[in-house]
Amino acid sequence: MKKIAVITSGGDCPGMNAAIRAVVRVALTCGVEVWGIRNGYAGMIDDDMAKLDSRSVGDIIQKGGTFLGTARSEEFKTLKGQQKAADNLQAHGIEGLVVIGGDGSLTGAKQLSELGIKIVGLPGTIDNDIWGTDYTIGFDTAVNTALDAINKLRDTASAHGRVMLVEVMGRACGWIALTAGLAGGAEIILVPEQPFSSDDVCKKLVESRSKGKKYSIIVVAEGASSAIDLGKYISAKTGLETRVSVIGHIQRGGAPTVADRLLASRLAERAVRALVDGRSDIMIGYQSNQCVEVPIADAVGKKKDIDPELYRLADVLSQ
Amino acid sequence: MKKIAVITSGGDCPGMNAAIRAVVRVALTCGVEVWGIRNGYAGMIDDDMAKLDSRSVGDIIQKGGTFLGTARSEEFKTLKGQQKAADNLQAHGIEGLVVIGGDGSLTGAKQLSELGIKIVGLPGTIDNDIWGTDYTIGFDTAVNTALDAINKLRDTASAHGRVMLVEVMGRACGWIALTAGLAGGAEIILVPEQPFSSDDVCKKLVESRSKGKKYSIIVVAEGASSAIDLGKYISAKTGLETRVSVIGHIQRGGAPTVADRLLASRLAERAVRALVDGRSDIMIGYQSNQCVEVPIADAVGKKKDIDPELYRLADVLSQ
Amino acid sequence: MKKIAVITSGGDCPGMNAAIRAVVRVALTCGVEVWGIRNGYAGMIDDDMAKLDSRSVGDIIQKGGTFLGTARSEEFKTLKGQQKAADNLQAHGIEGLVVIGGDGSLTGAKQLSELGIKIVGLPGTIDNDIWGTDYTIGFDTAVNTALDAINKLRDTASAHGRVMLVEVMGRACGWIALTAGLAGGAEIILVPEQPFSSDDVCKKLVESRSKGKKYSIIVVAEGASSAIDLGKYISAKTGLETRVSVIGHIQRGGAPTVADRLLASRLAERAVRALVDGRSDIMIGYQSNQCVEVPIADAVGKKKDIDPELYRLADVLSQ
Amino acid sequence: MKKIAVITSGGDCPGMNAAIRAVVRVALTCGVEVWGIRNGYAGMIDDDMAKLDSRSVGDIIQKGGTFLGTARSEEFKTLKGQQKAADNLQAHGIEGLVVIGGDGSLTGAKQLSELGIKIVGLPGTIDNDIWGTDYTIGFDTAVNTALDAINKLRDTASAHGRVMLVEVMGRACGWIALTAGLAGGAEIILVPEQPFSSDDVCKKLVESRSKGKKYSIIVVAEGASSAIDLGKYISAKTGLETRVSVIGHIQRGGAPTVADRLLASRLAERAVRALVDGRSDIMIGYQSNQCVEVPIADAVGKKKDIDPELYRLADVLSQ
């Protein structure tokens, strides 16, 4: 393998730049040329790509987002679009591709691999919902951002004796809510994976007041409920004062944490080494503190559940 | 004056603790005893107050919220409630009172003063909407928190080429939106004081794309529009992708900034010195880098507008 | 087991409060009474301890330091001191003890266990140097604090083209330097475990300038070198401008990160369950994302080395 | 005036980028072309400059450092160097120059003005030591960074009952130490402007212990003392445990605060308007919340003292 490319696709996450940097520098160490594709699969179709050298990835490790840009592409969902993208890579002599992104991006990678491109995927999404890896790139930063919000809400919740609701990301998946909620000492955590009744939430809040809790923090995954609607319901039902924050895309930004930079760097190194050694159609995951290679078909086909032990622990600790 | 009390009332804000600490330590230096009243005027009515010494305000300067607690009180809105509160103070021999809070709290202070309590108010609100002072305690922290959110949104906005809307506090007043928006390089800032049309917003966004801006940040004061509704409108009208964050009470929390701690400390010192010197029925403001005493009736009766120069500058700089 | 105690000892670290909170709340769920010992083993000797309930550990999960206090005790190093401490526990009917601390504290725990106290240790130190656990409580927060410093130095290093040295903690152990250095994109990382020559450092700096690097960041563990002395040497030898920061105990403070709060909570839960189930003389470690029980004699007797793979990766990525 | 240039010179500070951005965008609004000079006066001598447009200053407002770079230049200290620099500007048709920097940079500006270049200076230095302005660009960010360090030291100081020393910047000037110390609740603040004896420091520490203070924070300006030496002295003399942090150039980095971005934007706007209106040989200062124009000869010739009132207040509040 003499020439590879790197692409970030789908929703961005903190740590993508650290991954790109590691792909480039490790590849150069292995004597492999690296190209960067701009704006995701759309850029691959538009032949928007350029060679990267070591200096071109300097001073980016600390930045959120992705300096290559990212986008969603309708055209790439068609076989014609995919073929055009693959043709562009081949025209440049690019044999291998490192794809950094979430579920949709890795699915796209799998489709490219069927057109003859050697593919290695990296799990890059704040949602931590990719099968085959304990952690995804961006998750640690996102939950720390959510935690920072909870820390601040705690100050004012405590001063007023209020119920504070914070809505975090997670349409189909409660990892951010569960993790930030446990770390933030939330009294109630609502995730898409666990059905709940708003009345039970109200009951629990009323009970905890009678036990001496002076304020409450509720963390809600966007896929579990609208925090705004739930806040109104609680207020109407219990008479408790509620306030709501919807932190939204703030969770996607910011300088990546140590853990995300290390994870991105390690996975990226392994991705390049796999390509160089002739292995592809895989995603590099991180399991039990080791880089592992999992079939990309499994990574995009299987579902990763939240940890039930963590959910149980959160409940015990909020007593 | 031998004995004074200090109270935080209404919405909390970062810097209230720094103000309480300064009231206590300056008063002790002047040979005056200080009591702390818990949970705002409600606590004054319930006689929930205790003597404070220098150590009891140790290790609080860095904390958001108010360790005395705060609350809103319906009972205090009645003359009977006010009389009960005043009676409690007098029963303890408390002659003077430092009230830290926003418009409503200072109005309450004015009412107490009519019942014979010597009152000095401090402007404590994140909204910066109190007449007679250039800055209110908590404003600098709140706008820096909002700015931090904007910084993070910028990463992901840049990666995706999106329109990011962030809704900040300010029901009747656009100081937070204007200041955070200008500092954050927002393209559009919407404040309650300036009428706007959603169509003009859409037009401006479309134009800026044609001039080469790849993404846009819109800061919306809650009193100007719902960012969620506006985001939907823009998306439907222009086809641009929008994302919304409603940062809410996060703005009220967090460790106070240097500026808020200094402001709180300076105003608090002057408040105590005014009481000791026999002046009351005033609010201590900060004008042109000096503590000033303004009649409390003016502070609660007059309206402070946003700075039109700042609004104009924000527009020039977003080109 | 009806009654246990919890103690923090030795150097404090972020996450100790989260661990105490979890010990208390899990124990109460198991029907076990919990006492808190103040100021480490010194407080145990002085019988400075009190019963804790669920509310007494409210609002502490977000705080650095330890609300129980910690101290070093000369008296506890004697058998007489240890016996007095054990007697005090027994006088209160305390059968089990959870000790949160580093190497010295766990060694103390082992000694107490020889006097009949059932002991479970938790690895609490920013240094990450305890055998038997992949991570220690406080490490993730400390390296993120060091990383934040490096992020800031990068701004000014880049503006000036300077060599910035930052000295981080780690007398005998380079985990903080290695991890923060890798994450921070440091060009050179100096750890106690790896001998180096100052002249080689100078040579590498000069070479990297000739390759186009405009500035350099060097992370130095305090046990590897004095950053101040090294900075002077580099400057004299190469003529490059150097600047030095010694971040010191700042690394010990601050609100704990998500990872540290989770680690503390999980380990603490397991510690209580082990005591309740009759297991002791162990430390709870975290290996491959699982809580594990290791003999406390191993935890204090064996040495944990830095990860050589990480060191190699740091070198590749700094090219 | 048809064409101006902007330069950052001397030590960098947070907010320089915000100032450059405002100079460019305001000038373009006025129909004036703007050039950016790279690496300070050295770049002016080397003719290292290029035209800037509105997009070229996009996405920089949030960044520390200066994207133009900065450097110190020995050659510029000679008349020959200055003449060469002036000739380069004139060769490009550049008539006016906005210089952003500290005392040395503004002195350089004054020298250029004597060679026929129309000059307006902006006070850009974290030290806040420029006569004619209440605040310099970068000061607010630097003191908030120092405060963050103090906040973290407080956690661990409190846990251990130690004396923590933190050395901040300020060779000839105590503004950072005084302001951060007051805001951080430091017990002792040492500044170059106020002579002190190490024995008095020791005495005060011992007394405060006897009054019940459990730990102490000392903020030392680098120009007042070496914190490392002082820490050793205190420890030897009093037996109190001391720990030292030297935060150094960390204070120069980081995203600028709201206040610094606003200050930079306002001053920059006024600088451009002054040039356009034909006024030069001035520095734009900020006094009593207003932009003012002061003769550049005064700005570099007069000394700005620390505020004695603030120093006195710090002492009262540390009781």
Description of the molecule:
- The structure is a homotetramer of 319-residue chains.
- With 319 residues, the first copy, chain A, is of the alpha/beta class.
- Helix content of chain A is 43%, strand content 18%.
- The first copy, chain A, has 11 helices and 11 strands.
- Chain A has helices spanning 16-29, 40-45, 79-91, 103-113, 139-160, 175-184, 198-210, 227-238, 258-276, 296-301, 308-317, and strands spanning 3-8, 33-37, 49-52, 96-101, 118-123, 163-168, 188-190, 216-221, 242-246, 282-287, 290-295.
- Chain A has a 7-stranded mixed β-sheet, sandwiched between helices. The first copy, chain A, has a 4-stranded parallel β-sheet with strand order 7-8-6-9, sandwiched between helices.
- In chain A, strand 4 (96-101), helix 4 and strand 5 (118-123) form a beta-alpha-beta unit.
- In chain A, helix 1 (16-29) runs parallel beside helix 9 (258-276).
- The longest helix of chain A has 22 residues, at 139-160.
- Chain A is elongated.
- The N and C termini of chain A lie far apart (57 Å).
- The interface between A and C is large, with 44 and 44 residues.
